[in-house]
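Worked example

This section walks through a single chain of length 212. The input is the sequence exactly as stored; nothing has been trimmed or padded.
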Amino acid sequence: MIRVLLADDHHLVRAGMKSLLEKSLDIRVVAEASDGLEAVTQFKALRPDVVILDISMPNMDGLEAAKYILSIDQSAAILILTMYPEKQYAVRAIRAGALGYITKSASTSELHAAVRNVAVKKRFLLEEGVDALSAGLSSGKAGAGPVDSLSDRELQVLRLIARGRKVKEISQELDVRTKTVETYRSRILRKLGLRNNAELCRFAFENALLDG
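Given that input, the structure is written out below as tokens.
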């Protein structure tokens, strides 16, 4: 039996994913989490065989949670889940230490295959993403687009700003000083060649970053 910890901040998505996962007799969801911090806590308590993490979650996103979990147990088997198939997310997921990356549009059979492969420490990628991922990893960069110049934390801050969060709210959510958030914001604007939050929000929307 493959014991799974499922983390996604949307209850209905978790319920649907759990139902799909448990259509397979060898997979059971033993715990759920609504954010990255809760996922880390559940992992410490249960040590599941596979951890499925949505990229976009409050308090601690999926990529950061993956790194934290792997710092606790470097043999942890992590599968990253996202809405979007953009190469930049796949590369960041693998670099964060995840063994697999799958989109929410994947079929039930693909989802089951991903969990089974990751459970035995085999990498799993949907076929259409393999070539792009290989190119991104071998180049030493997350790709050629402007988003790829951002660090994982900068990308996280960008998403939060684009969702309308204030600096103080972001600092509380990420547990950093407000000055640190302002520094991230300045770096993001500089790297992307943007002037203000309005342009940043438009950039996030046009690059499908709000629900990654």
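What to look for: The two ends are 30 Å apart (CA to CA).
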